[in-house]
Amino acid sequence: MRLIILGPPGAGKGTQAARIAERLAIPAISTGDIFRSNIKNQTELGRKVEAILASGGYVPDEVTNEIVADRLTWDDAVNGFLLDGYPRTAGQVDALDTMLEDHGHQLDAVLELTVDEDAVVARLLKRAETEGRADDTEDVIRERQAIYRRETAPLAAHYEQAGLLVQVDGMGEVDEVTERILAALPQHA
Q1: More exposed terminus of the chain, fewer Cβ within 10 Å: N or C?
Q2: Which residues hold AMP (predicted)?
């Protein structure tokens, strides 16, 4: 099964991606994790990404597309994957479509976790407090939510038009959300 998971910051995408991927025996592929790993290991890609992020920029689509294209060739992704944090732009959507077409594949579903923004803001503020992240103020968190709505809404609409979007209530206990996702998938697989 080839899946994407979308949702605003704090919706639980990373948690659910790991759980769903494990249940479906496919890898959860997070571009953020790949970037962080490369930065930590000081690879050529890591140094490039670190410099871009340090200057306040966004990692260009061509760099992100390249790492995803490479990751999708790994043996564990041959029979499927769950992408978390990719695609984020229309250019990345087009690149992913091309990658899949080149290998005779297509997406099975795009999961969108829907959440109550105020509840997510409260969750992120609590997480910032427990993890000691002073930069996660309410204003910063709300701005990230607004950026997500502006940048990702067109992607969700694109996938809805393609008949791939599966909206799942992301509120509640982790196990409840996982079960909702799994229950929604067979209709689209």
Answers
A1: C
A2: 31, 36, 57-59, 85-88, 92, 133, 144
CA distance linking residue 92 with residue 98, whole number of Å: 10
Give the mean model confidence (pLDDT) for residues 114-125.
Answer: 91
Answering whether pTM is above 0.85, one says yes
Active-site residue set: 13, 88, 127, 133, 144
In a domain, 189, yes or no: no
List the binding residues for AMP.
Answer: 31, 36, 57-59, 85-88, 92, 133, 144
Q: What is the pLDDT of residues 139-156, one digit of tens each?
A: 888 888 888 888 888 899
Domain count, the chain: 1
Is the residue at 74 inside a domain? yes
